């Protein structure tokens, strides 16, 4: 290859490398510099151990917790830090940075948790409603003095009491009862469900329940057939209980209202309380509570929870940690600036080499600038997480939140932690340039020899 052809090759290579390095810098700015994703498979046992009774013993809470095992639920918690936030953090006090970091982390955490709840609530609510109905049947049987079903059994183990009643009625009656329960559940969970449509199904179900007892020939004396007065009372009570789950115009919005309840109750837990559901609950799905409702909108409940979580973290972060974060941010910012300069080196050299005899230059700068950020943000954390396991994350979360490290570790025991970074593009480019540098260097040196010979 002649000298002119080599110069053309080097000029074209310089232009291409410069463009790719600029794209690598843009990737740093567009994508998070550092992201950690924690995929947790929370088990019912671990959640109950951590809750230590604070979640209460309502059907909905139990169904939500049980669904973790039944559905193999996965929770993804993602936290990220952007390049621009670090560069900005170099020039602001550590306390302000801490506020920004906690704001970002809590916002992401609550948003991820909300998505998880939205996915699990429908099935959990259906399961809870089914348990409540069966519990109601057991309670009626216990109060009626049916043999083998005492009020104590109905209260302590409603499932066992319900099974005893169904065993006494026979398989055909059990099948009809289960069908009736299915229709009531469908009426409640239907997209177009209203207070009226649900109460109509339940009230008509009273007559069907009486027919089931009559056809079985069992318990007709202990449990009288419903009269109009009983139906009216059931309708009135049910309407009051369903009002908290309506949009104010009679249409049920069960999923949205349950989400509000869970978020409000989580805020109570953050305050150090327990889930009573009294402010936002109803006895139908959540155990003891009132018919009154003082629910927030889902958005307001979410903001309240975020605010209380942020306050909790602020209270538990010592000044020494804030100062350390400020120092780390300054160091990280300096390293980012150095990285950008290394990646800009090809562009600078390309511009300064225009018209020179030998436009070639050493490619070490962009190679180093592309490799070491990825090592720091992905490879090192990944290796550290693999060596230290969930214990490291548990201690960090415990220190920031004030939660017991053992409780956090129970949740994180099945966690899979992965790291990612916007430096990936620069890393791939650096590896490519490292390989290409052998070809590029060969022609750069060859052009130099040709020019020396001339």
What does this structure look like?
The protein is mainly α. The chain is built from 18 helices and three strands. The protein has a three-stranded antiparallel beta sheet. The protein has two domains: 3-52 and 83-97 and 319-453, no CATH class; 116-313, no CATH class. 30% of the residues are buried. It has helices at residues 3-30, 44-51, 59-70, 83-89, 94-143, 151-156, 158-169, 171-189, 195-216, 228-242, 254-270, 283-286, 298-316, 319-352, 364-388, 390-401, 405-412, 424-453, and strands at 34-40, 75-81, 416-420.
Which tags fit this structure?
mainly alpha, 2 domains, 3-stranded antiparallel β-sheet, 454 residues
Strand content: under 5%
Integer count of domains: 2
Segments where pLDDT lies below 50 for 5+ residues?
A: 273-296
Helix-strand makeup class: mainly alpha
Order of helices and strands: HEHHEHHHHHHHHHHHHHHEH
Sheet with the most strands, sense and barrel status: 3 strands, antiparallel
Number of strands: 3
Shape: elongated
- Give the fraction of residues assigned to helices: over 70%
* Count of runs of 4 or more consecutive helical residues: 18
**What is the mean predicted local confidence, pLDDT?**
77
| Side-by-side strand order of the widest sheet | 2-1-3
| Alpha carbon gap, first and last residue | 15 Å
Q: What is the radius of gyration?
A: 33 Å
């Amino acid at each position: 290859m002649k000298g002119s052809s080599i110069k053309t090759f080097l000029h074209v290579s310089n232009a291409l490398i410069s463009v790719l390095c600029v794209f690598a810098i843009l990737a740093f700015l567009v994508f998070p510099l550092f992201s950690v994703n924690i995929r947790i498979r929370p088990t019912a046992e671990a959640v109950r151990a951590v809750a230590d009774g604070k979640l209460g013993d309502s059907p909905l809470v139990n169904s939500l917790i049980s669904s973790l095992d039944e559905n193999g639920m996965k929770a993804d918690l993602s936290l990220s830090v952007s390049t621009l936030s670090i560069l900005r953090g170099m020039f602001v006090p550590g306390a302000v940075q801490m506020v920004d970091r906690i704001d970002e982390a809590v916002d992401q955490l609550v948003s991820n948790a909300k998505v998880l709840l939205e996915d699990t609530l429908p099935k959990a609510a259906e399961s809870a409603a089914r348990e409540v109905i069966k519990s109601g049947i057991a309670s009626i049987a216990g109060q009626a003095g049916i043999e083998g079903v005492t009020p104590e059994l109905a209260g302590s183990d409603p499932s066992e009491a319900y099974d005893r009643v169904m065993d006494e009625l026979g398989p055909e009656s059990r099948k009809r009862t289960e069908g009736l329960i299915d229709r009531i559940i469908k009426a409640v969970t239907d997209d177009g469900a209203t207070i009226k449509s649900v109460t109509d199904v339940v009230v008509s179900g009273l007559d069907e329940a009486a027919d089931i007892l009559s056809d079985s020939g069992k318990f007709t004396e202990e449990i009288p057939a419903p009269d109009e007065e009983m139906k009216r009372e059931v309708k009135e009570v049910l309407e009051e209980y369903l009002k908290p789950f309506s949009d104010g115009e009679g249409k049920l919005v069960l999923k949205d209202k349950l989400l509000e309840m869970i978020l409000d109750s989580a805020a109570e837990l953050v305050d150090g309380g327990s889930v009573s559901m009294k402010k936002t609950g109803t006895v139908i799905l959540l155990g003891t509570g009132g018919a009154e409702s003082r629910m927030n909108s889902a958005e307001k409940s979410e903001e309240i929870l975020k605010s209380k979580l942020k306050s909790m973290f602020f209270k538990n972060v010592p000044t020494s940690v804030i100062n350390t974060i400020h120092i780390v941010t300054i160091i990280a910012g300096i390293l980012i600036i150095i990285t950008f300069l290394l990646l800009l080196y090809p562009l600078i050299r390309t511009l300064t080499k225009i018209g020179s005899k030998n436009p070639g230059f050493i490619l070490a700068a962009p190679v180093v600038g592309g490799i070491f950020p990825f090592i720091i943000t992905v490879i090192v954390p990944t290796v550290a997480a693999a060596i230290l396991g969930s214990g490291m994350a548990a201690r960090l979360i415990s220190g920031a939140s004030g939660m017991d490290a053992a409780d956090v570790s129970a949740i994180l025991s099945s966690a899979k932690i992965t790291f990612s970074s916007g430096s990936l593009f620069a890393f791939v480019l650096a590896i490519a340039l490292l390989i290409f540098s052998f070809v590029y260097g060969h022609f750069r040196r060859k052009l130099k020899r040709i020019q020396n010979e001339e």
